[in-house]
Design goal:
By secondary structure, the protein is mostly helical. The protein contains 3 helices and no strands.
């Protein structure tokens, strides 16, 4: 390496170290420390709020899933009850308990006119 490149390399290192020193001096001020602590607390509070929100949403979803399962179970029970009530055996039992009689042969009125009702003249 030439002297020029060594000198240039040394200047770059000094430039970098001076920038780091300036940054550390900036952080060393009381205002910067307060701002840094406040931002860390703000970010920590935001993180805790987000974690709490997602956890409570998880519990809410879990409750909804339990309700869905209960409603599906009730739906299947009602479907089974409907099937039982529509069976011929069930219908026959209800007919027997209501004391209905089966209808016989029906007699229909035969008319030659197209009138349904006749008035007195």
């Amino acid at each position: 390496m030439s002297r020029f490149s060594l000198l240039r390399h040394k200047q770059k290192q000094e430039n970098i170290s001076s920038r780091i020193g300036e940054f550390l001096a900036l952080i060393d001020t009381t205002r910067m420390r307060i701002a840094l602590i406040a931002s860390i607390m703000l970010l920590g509070g935001t993180y805790l709020w987000l974690v709490n929100s997602s956890a409570s949403a998880g519990f809410y979803v879990s409750d909804l899933e339990k309700q869905v399962l209960a409603l599906e179970d009730e739906y299947h029970k009602l479907g089974n009850q409907q099937t039982a009530l529509q069976s011929l055996e069930s219908i026959q039992q209800r007919i027997d308990t209501s004391k209905m009689v089966a209808s016989g042969k029906a007699d229909y009125l035969q008319t030659t006119d197209s009138a349904v009702a006749f008035g007195n003249k």
